[in-house]
Design brief:
With 110 residues, the protein is an alpha+beta fold. The chain has three helices and four strands.
């Protein structure tokens, strides 16, 4: 869905990184959230692509340092790195139920 919508909007340059970010955020919501529903939203406004995953669990994710041989634990590190690389950021809602990421849109499209 992410790739198809971004291509439709002419934002091919963000497809690969946005797909990885969405995959990581949704995976975290499924693996670590205790909610019964996961909701994903994607909007483009004010020159940024906004990606958000809501799982209803008031738990704030944190970037951690995974050992080299670990099979997991790098997801939010990747989200943080990709957001920074695209002039954006990531975080959680005030109540901790939604994790979001913003990426600057090339050319400032809205």
């Amino acid at each position: 869905m992410t790739a198809a919508r971004l291509r439709y909007c002419g934002l091919e340059a963000l497809v690969d990184d946005a797909k990885l970010i969405v995959s990581e955020l949704v995976t975290n919501a499924i693996q670590h959230g205790g909610g019964v529903q996961v909701t994903f939203t994607m909007t483009v406004r004010d020159g940024f692509l906004h990606l958000a995953v809501h799982d209803g669990t008031p738990c704030r994710p944190v970037v951690r340092s995974a050992p080299e041989d670990a099979e997991c634990g790098r997801g939010l590190f990747l989200v943080d790195w990709l957001a920074s690389a695209h002039g954006g950021t990531w975080g959680t809602s005030d109540d901790g139920t939604t994790t979001w990421c913003c990426l600057a849109v090339p050319g400032g499209q809205s």
